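job 3f2a | input accepted
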Amino acid sequence: MDINKSPELISGNMTIGLCAFIKTFHEVSWMVQPPNYLLLACHASNETV
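job 3f2a | predicted structure (49 res):
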């Protein structure tokens, strides 16, 4: 349903916050022992998109 909405409705602050959150937990998933590769792949794909 959101695909038909105007791009002006996208919040810049929320996008920046989401990117920071994803980047933080991308690093955490890599640093934990043992590394959580599934979570790492999930956050990497989200950051790419």
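job 3f2a | The chain has a mean pLDDT of 81.
job 3f2a | closed
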